Amino acid sequence: MFALSLTLALFAGTGSGVAPKAPAATTVAPAGFVLEADHVHTGAGSILEPGKVWIRNGKIEAVGTEVKAPDGAVRIKVEGHLSAGMVALGETSLLGYEAADTTRFIMPEAEGRLGFDPKMPGLQRLAKEGITTVVLTPPSHSLAAGRGVIAKTGTGRIVARAESMHMAFDSEMFKQRSDPSNGTDIGGGFIVFFGASGAVNPNGYRSSYPGASALLEERMADGKGAFGHLGEGKLRGWLRSGTRAEASRALSFAKRHKIQGTLEAGARVGDLAPQVKASGLGVALGTFSERAPHFSSQSAIALARESVPFGFCLNAKARHASALRLSAALCRKAGLSERDAWAALTSGAASATGIQDVVGELAPGRDADLVLWTGAPTELTSQVMRVWVDGQAIAGINAKKGAK
Amino acid sequence: MGLLKKRLFCTGLAATVLTATTWALPQEEKPSDDASIFVEVLHTSTGDTLKNVHVTVKDGRIDTITAGTKAGENSVTGAVLTAGMIDLSPHITYANNAVEQTNELESRLSVAGALDLFSPTWKRLARTGVTTVLVTPPDRNVVGGMCAIMKTQGSTDLAKRQLNGQSFLRGAMGDAPSSGNRPAWGSPDSIYNRRPTTRMGVEWEWRKAFYDAAAAGEFPELEFPGADVFRAVLAGNVNLYVQAFAMLDIRTAVFLKEEMRDQGFGEMNLWIDGGSESWKDAQLLKRSGSGVVLAPFPASGRSNERSFMAWRVAKDLAEAGIPFTLSAHGGTRPGTTIGDQAGRAMHGGLDFQRALNAVTIEPARALGMEDRIGTSAVGKAADLVMWSGPPFELTSRILAVWVDGVLITPSTPQKN
Amino acid sequence: MKRFPKKATLALSLLCSALTLALPAEAGEKQAIKAGTIITMDGDPIVDGVILMDSGRIVAVGASADVEIPWDAEVTEAPDMVAVPGFVEAHSNNGMDRTNETIDMGAFFDVQDSVNPVAFYFEDSLRYGITTINIQQGNQCVVAAQGAIVKPFGATVAQQLVRPHAGLKMSVTAKRGKSRATQAAALRKAFGDLRSHLEKLVDEHKKGDDRARREALAQGRDYDGEDGKGRAMTGKGWTLEGMENIPRVEIDEKLAPLLKVVEGRMAVYMYCGSPAEVHTALNIARENGFLHRMIFVLGSGCFKAADEIAAAKVPVILSRTLVHTERDPITSEETLTFEAKVFQDKGVAFALTSNNSGLESLWYQAALCVGQGMARKDALASITTSPAKILGLENRVGVLKPGADANVVLYTGDPLSVTSHVNLVFIDGQPVYDRSKDVRLQHLMDGEQPKGTAPSDEEEGEMHAGEGPSDDDKKGEGSDSKGDK
User: Fold this and answer.
1) pTM value?
2) Global ipTM
3) Which of C330, C338, C419, C449 is the best residue to mutate to test the B interface, defined by the most B CB atoms within 10 Å of its own CB?
């Protein structure tokens, strides 16, 4: 489904920024435009009925029942519910096969944005579901697979700051099918080697949890390169875990080295909610199990109780973008409040990944990422009518339902 | 803007209240570690048997033991009480990603970093009466790493769960290290076909490690990572815990120890895990001062690695005065538990007191923790097992287990 | 394996039995055992008792003061030992060549053709006190062989026989390659085929077609015996008019044993591996009139259908897995159920099985039952009197009372204790096992290679026939939950 032929981004840091065709009314006016709607969901738990949002140069200038926009600003009245665009976390598949480099066991300097194609159709599919920001991270085929990408769906623009460096605490890295190659034949007999990378294991491969943990500690102690930045707080971490034991190890690691970042965790991470809080990490809640989705819902409730910011991963089994709202709906059914559920889709997910100042709310200074729904965004029956990313209306979204 | 903020606040407050009231998860409660127990018979593991005993537990320790008395109010009552059993070979973590295989002589890493303390295995094991275990890395390597001591129940935080005691370096002497090898032809050289494929290769690795470590002790430029652990083993500070079932492997381990001693490198403390054929030459083990953790008794006599485990092996070791314990290799089904292994040892001729010691005080001594666990005595940790009848008989079952004073019951309700 | 025509096999069996009876007994005809304790399974245990045996049967059991020992009886003094009736293995696949045939409908097979008298299994049975074994085919079948009740002692199958043609094995649980539905269909088809065949015979007879008679004569069947005449079909399920005109020898020999089942003249051992299949088995049994002769051989987990089984009054033979484990997929809590207790509480007659893998024999199963909370006498009954009754050998085996077969086991102590060993075994009043002469057991216990025997290295990798669990036990029973998460 995501079979992609990727091209390297030409411009480092900012992405290609090639914008799709936009309706004339929204891009040209220097004073920007004001969206007026009967329902404006500004952020978790607050609704303006009616409300206005003034957008200029791709950013939100003001939000309120009345806004002081200059006369040149175009006023657009829309019917429906306006909200911030949703933030999807932990998506690994959009980076395609280019994301999983297995030739080295540890490659923290790798940058995912260099393998990111802003025109990939997958992004457009996400936009159609109201997802405007997606946090892409490499899969755990290596212990440290490099840095991820935070990108906008409709425009393909890469959010420059707050990339996370991936570190694997789950067991995916041990499941490599191909043995790490020796390369040089030392000749005759077997070799006794003491140490992390002898001649027989040039890729620095580790076959066990204790071994992988020791390697991470070694690199942190070295303090060089990306690990050094991590330790100094200049780089965020993306710690991927599966079981509770793995999450526990990841949390201890983060606390010990004062790492800021995100823990991607499995369904039962809620049992560790106090430890998550103590570590200061945000959480990306992984795939909801079909057999026992209640574990994930309970974890969401536990994290909300501890005021840990969290969002949902998109790696649902169906790999369909609508799975994001379904995850929130399942949690609501189990008892999560509507406010917390919506936060998990927007501001909470942004906080969990360090981009809360950029997206996640309809508030001054944030990027102008908005979605127009037929009904309240937390209701599953609501559909997406229009999407704006960085102030640009995204073409190709279903506009049948009476919007102007 | 002020109105917006107010609305946010009110809605937020309301939402928080709503969240709190729709809370579904149970609150974290600290389980009680006080208890009052009454039994008809108490076997202390110090050779004493007391009758009509009332035991009180406070803050996870045995507070009082009173014989010849009646049950207290709210006492848990049963027929027999013994100390909690200790398994030095519980085979808890046996996945391949629990042992680092990129280095055949991995002496620094500990299996503790691979443990899943959330696994239901711990509770299953605790219900069979095992209260303390020595977790060992799987034997896919010549030297697998350091072992970890912990109770079968407790905090899920590793730092709080792991106990201090005697350090053990784990290794294997027989088939196990080569069992993970892949054929050398047709695939590139990798860590999975660089390991020794025969016993002589395994033994060579051991000997080389010790020689090199001893040499590095004298010539610092020869130092290699992990050499200090091997030197600690040679000095007898870290025990050497070697898996060996067949007599030829047991001999190899003992001869290795004796060779290191004769070379002047030091006197190792050797413990054999398995020891199925130790009945063939108990005197060898006696003169070497080694200890044995006996493998589970197979019905046909055929034990691991083509060894033959005669049923009298426990009796022979006891009579020779060799320190030994029994183990269940993680058996939790009826008939395979450590209590059942003690029963089988008795079937082979071992008397009850020695069988009890072999699962309580003897492993506690091996762990260097006999001051804390292994006997039912005032001041010791409240690790206790209550039985419905004579312990180790198949006609008895375990009614209740206490780990650090916290009560664990079987899954189905049993009548006392 | 050669196949004898049915008539010849029968004749041969009769001849062998006659020969056996005619041979003089190995030891003296009269035997007496003086034991410290006698557990008779027919009243309270007797302290300091005597068992008198004559011509293979028990003639008296009682306190030594009450029983006079004849002057010409051989006396076995066992003042420190405990005497129990030999245990009864209610259902076993061991001791045979291979446990299953491939065809669906194999009622004409007979396990006597497969039993191996020198199998290690029989020797081991004596070692652990089993003296009566119901050998049946395995569970991978639809309708399978006729079984045989044997004793684990004898140089030939004929010498081992206690009762031949002891029931027909069937399975309502899908064999390999079948689903639950196709298995039930195949089971019904077997009876359907029988009915069609009989209807065809009746029909041909009406039309005056003597094809069947000509065929039978050509095959040399015996019209002189009982089966040379026709007789009306009797059955609780269905019958067929006109069967009185059909000489029984003309019925297809492959289907004839099934006719016995329908007429209620042969027991049925019905393997049922899942509670969901119990009702199918009961229905088929009712439809074909053999419910009153059916015995369930259950896999683990069937306690859930205990009500149905109790209502139908069908006795059950339990699997080796005494405690059924189930894991809640959501909460991960494990529920352990001691199945025998469920059946006992609902009034279902039950017996235990062991597969006799060495130490984990019938005594072991009974001891574990006591450990799980069953009363001692009930646990002992489930390996003695209860299986005896289920096999139709009530008052003959599994009990020490006058008239019963003289099958006595002498233990060093309590038979359910781990420290006890079997010392002596008598079958039909003859001593057949003596631990002091048991070379293999000495090897197991002491590890010393017995003098004059081959070194143990040659035994490596060999599988003795009948040793270890059969495939059916592994496949048919519910498995214990093994997952960690």
Assistant:
1) 0.84
2) 0.84
3) C419
